[in-house]
Amino acid sequence: MTARTLLGLLVAGLVLAALAALPLFAGPYAVTLMIGMTGYVVLATAWGLFSGPTRYVSLATVAFFGIGAYTVGVFSETLPYPLVLLVAALIGLAVALVVGLSTLRLAGVYFVIFTFGLAELIRQLVTWYEVNVTGTLGRYIFLPVTPEGIYWQLLALAAATFLFSWGIGRTRWGLALKVIGDDEVVASHCGIDITRLKLALFAVSAVIITLVGAIQAPRWTYIEPSIAFNPTISFLTLIMALLGGADRLWGPLLGAIPLFLLFEWLSANFPNHYPIILGLVFIAIVFLLPKGVLAAVESRLRKGGAR
């Protein structure tokens, strides 16, 4: 391990410690804001973990997020909280493996359409079950988990996600994923097991997203399908990852923080026009920054150096 890597890890550790100490000095509103921001940082990073190197655009984020939230709603009264999180992760893993085995051979717009349809299918199935089997539409969640506890859990999950993403990028699997993203035909000729590698990464990403939903569920006293499976979550995660650069380690982080603050302000001040503005922001990012802010900055620096 080089001195530069050790210095980077030391700085990251100090920043993590400072963020962990924030609830001790901040007020309730700041803690709530940090919970939402950290949640989207993890979602965008987990999305970029799979979609960044493989270039598969997934809209299934809210499907796994909602699975995590609803698992807490169903089992919170019968199982200890840590065990509920474990059950949520296992359910997310099982769904990801089933979905991955059946769909990762798709590509392009077909994969996008399928993942969007998957999220809607799961939402409709949960709604049907609640209405026709349980006779209700939602679930109440009463857990002795404080906002500070939720924030610390999300912060730990964010650190683990970044560490995993950084670690896999330094292995031969990271190189294999880059080859897959460039050309799957070349990757298969190089002897790379494309299906197994994509499936493993998709499953890890799905488990992380599921845990985000499960950890944040105690924030809501009451959840229902329209809350847990809100498609806006998928689109916000996608926009955040694209803005920073989904194929960069710090890209989703740099995209999630400013956009989360912007969308919070817009939803508070322009609630009726918020969806329209969200769509315009999405279009602007796709056309003006298709590879993200970091890629644009690197390109500008290279041109400046050449001159």
UniProtKB/TrEMBL annotation:
Ranges annotated as spanning the membrane: 30-50, 57-75, 81-101, 108-129, 149-168, 199-217, 223-243, 250-268, 274-297
Membrane topology: Multi-pass membrane protein
Any Pfam family hit: BPD_transp_2
Highest taxon above the source species: Bacteria
Molecular function (Gene Ontology), one example: branched-chain amino acid transmembrane transporter activity
InterPro entries recorded: ABC_transp_permease, LivM-like
Cellular compartment(s): Cell membrane
Higher taxonomy: Bacteria, Pseudomonadati, Pseudomonadota, Alphaproteobacteria, Hyphomicrobiales
One annotated Gene Ontology cellular component of this protein: plasma membrane
PANTHER family xref list: HIGH-AFFINITY BRANCHED-CHAIN AMINO ACID TRANSPORT PROTEIN BRAE, HIGH-AFFINITY BRANCHED-CHAIN AMINO ACID TRANSPORT SYSTEM PERMEASE
CDD domains per UniProt: TM_PBP1_LivM_like
Protein name: Amino acid/amide ABC transporter membrane protein 2 (HAAT family)
Keywords associated with the record: Cell membrane, Membrane, Transmembrane, Transmembrane helix
Source organism of this protein record: Shinella granuli
